[in-house]
């Protein structure tokens, strides 16, 4: 199965007001019609501001489905704008309940793999001037997800996104979200997540800690 790409976005750090502070963020991204270079750490020309919580091989490319935009526009009461979730790739289809951790895709000439859900932070609230946005994302599970890059290459909005390997035995992105955000998750639930070898190490640490606390 393959779908077209709605948009590709890149961004540079900028300072924005957050209360009485100025913070640096790259969540405000703009679409590009150019063919972009995809490497192990992301898209050339897209720079992360917070390298502790963003970026790295397991969070090289952030993807979000355009099919979710109408839901958020209705809830926000305003247009979602470009790269509503700070994503690099805005997709058609491929919702969180339709893809598994580990699924492999052709993205132009690159090959990428789903590594983890996107875990929202307060900067998403700043972008939409709605501080409840991170909570809403956790409640719905409409998080989007990250790709790691298995093969470097190039892509543009003219390319298709084709799933070439499905890890149907692995949990979906939605299931992983629910396990993390559900206070009633059992030790068995968490153990199941820890058995997913394709899951990003950051999430392995979260689930390990959560299981140890039960």
UniProtKB/TrEMBL annotation:
<dbReference type="InterPro" id="IPR005302">
    <property type="entry name" value="MoCF_Sase_C"/>
</dbReference>
<dbReference type="Pfam" id="PF03473">
    <property type="entry name" value="MOSC"/>
</dbReference>
<dbReference type="GO" id="GO:0003824">
    <property type="term" value="F:catalytic activity"/>
</dbReference>
<dbReference type="GO" id="GO:0030151">
    <property type="term" value="F:molybdenum ion binding"/>
</dbReference>
<dbReference type="InterPro" id="IPR011037">
    <property type="entry name" value="Pyrv_Knase-like_insert_dom_sf"/>
</dbReference>
<dbReference type="GO" id="GO:0030170">
    <property type="term" value="F:pyridoxal phosphate binding"/>
</dbReference>
<protein>
    <recommendedName>
        <fullName>MOSC domain-containing protein</fullName>
    </recommendedName>
</protein>
<feature type="domain" description="MOSC">
    <location>
        <begin position="30"/>
        <end position="164"/>
    </location>
</feature>
<dbReference type="InterPro" id="IPR052353">
    <property type="entry name" value="Benzoxazolinone_Detox_Enz"/>
</dbReference>
């Amino acid at each position: 199965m393959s779908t077209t790409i709605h948009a590709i976005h890149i961004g540079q750090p900028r300072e924005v007001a957050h209360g009485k502070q100025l913070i640096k963020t790259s969540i405000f991204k703009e679409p590009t019609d150019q063919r972009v270079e995809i490497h192990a750490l992301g898209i050339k020309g897209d720079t992360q501001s917070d390298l502790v919580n963003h970026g790295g091989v397991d969070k090289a490319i952030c993807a979000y489905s355009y099919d979710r935009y109408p839901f958020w526009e209705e809830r926000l009461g305003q247009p979602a704008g470009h790269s509503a979730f700070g994503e690099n790739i805005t997709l058609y289809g491929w919702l969180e309940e339709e893809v598994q951790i580990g699924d492999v895709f052709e993205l132009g000439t690159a090959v990428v793999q789903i590594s983890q859900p996107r875990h929202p932070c307060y900067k998403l609230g700043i972008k939409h001037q709605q501080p409840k946005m991170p909570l809403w994302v956790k409640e719905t599970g409409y998080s989007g997800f990250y790709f790691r890059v298995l093969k470097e290459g190039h892509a543009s909005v003219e390319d298709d996104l084709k799933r070439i390997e499905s890890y149907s035995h692995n949990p979906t992105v939605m299931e992983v979200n629910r396990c993390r955000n559900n206070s009633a998750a059992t030790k068995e639930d968490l153990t199941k997540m820890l058995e997913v070898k394709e899951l990003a190490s950051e999430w392995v640490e979260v689930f390990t800690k959560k299981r140890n606390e039960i």
